[in-house]
Amino acid sequence: MGDNLVLYVGEKNISSWSMRAYLALLAKNLPFEERTIELRVDKDRAQRRRVSPTARLPVLHHGTRVIPDSLAIIEYLEETFPAPGHPALWPSDPDRRAHARWLAATMHSGFTKLRESMSFNLCFLPQPPQPSVEALAEAAEMLSLLQDALDRRAASGPFLFGAFSAADVMYSPAIVRLTAFRVPTTRTPRTPAYMEALLAHPPVKRWMDAARALPPQDHY
Ligand SMILES: N[C@@H](CCC(=O)N[C@@H](CS)C(=O)NCC(=O)O)C(=O)O
Question: Which residue among 160, 164, 186, 203 is the one 20 to 30 A from 150 at the CA level?
Fold first, then answer.
């Protein structure tokens, strides 16, 4: 399919789901056009409805194909632009791939208290508010899942499965949150180095630098 890839995203300091699709495209070394729909402006979702069947961002357009949802976009990219022509998004070993997939799915469908209370836009405030007790409990759960993956890591590299993978893509916004809200990591000693490596990863840094350049939003 020779058509151009177009990714519709929300504001970089608000739309954590958009960040995931953006990171997946960069991980695949794919050129793409990025179009922003401002969530703060598109209150009635009219602009989103025009480009996305779910009226949510991110949404990827590839020729006549329209793919909303960060995880669906990851799977689409992996299938359409496979290794070795493009870097693999999932680990090649079946055990590790299964692990990476359930970790990604757990992020995709869970941690709702953390996402609510440690909202992505709040990460860019000079002083983020105190998170709820429930959000902190979910953050501790997340850190222990990450620690477990890092304990079992067999491949070399600083990420969850060694090389940067879709699991890292899915957890990147959460790592921004855990860092901004200064969640304690003393019980999960391998996680600080992982979090540091992820935030220093050039595609993550590129998104975050652009996000920091926008005016911070305490609500939207
Ligand atoms: N499960 C979706 C979630 C997408 C999502 O909720 N996106 C937000 C922006 S970060 C959105 O468009 N929300 C609008 C709404 O829920 O009306 C994904 O993985 O992409």
Answer: 203
> How many residues does the structure list for the chain?
220
The residues of the chain that CATH labels 1.20.1050.10 are 94-212
Homologous superfamily of 5-80:
Glutaredoxin (3.40.30.10)
Query: What pLDDT does 2 receive?
Result: 53
Distance (angstroms) between ligand 1 centre and the Cα of 176 equals: 18
Which of 25, 57, 111 to probe ligand 1 with, by most ligand atoms within 8 A of CB? 57
Q: Which region holds residue 58: left if phi is over 0, alpha if psi is between -120 and 50, else beta?
A: beta
What is the C-alpha to C-alpha distance for residues 21 and 27, in angstroms, rounded to an integer?
Answer: 10
Residue 10 CB–ligand 1 contact under 6 Å:
yes
Fold of 94-212: Glutathione S-transferase Yfyf (Class Pi); Chain A, domain 2 (1.20.1050)
Write the pLDDT tens digit of every residue in 151-166.
999 989 999 999 999 9
Residue 1: pLDDT over 80: no
The string of pLDDT tens digits covering residues 49-82 is: 999 999 999 999 999 999 999 999 999 999 999 9
pTM for the structure as a whole = 0.97
Ligand 1 atom 16, closest CA: 56
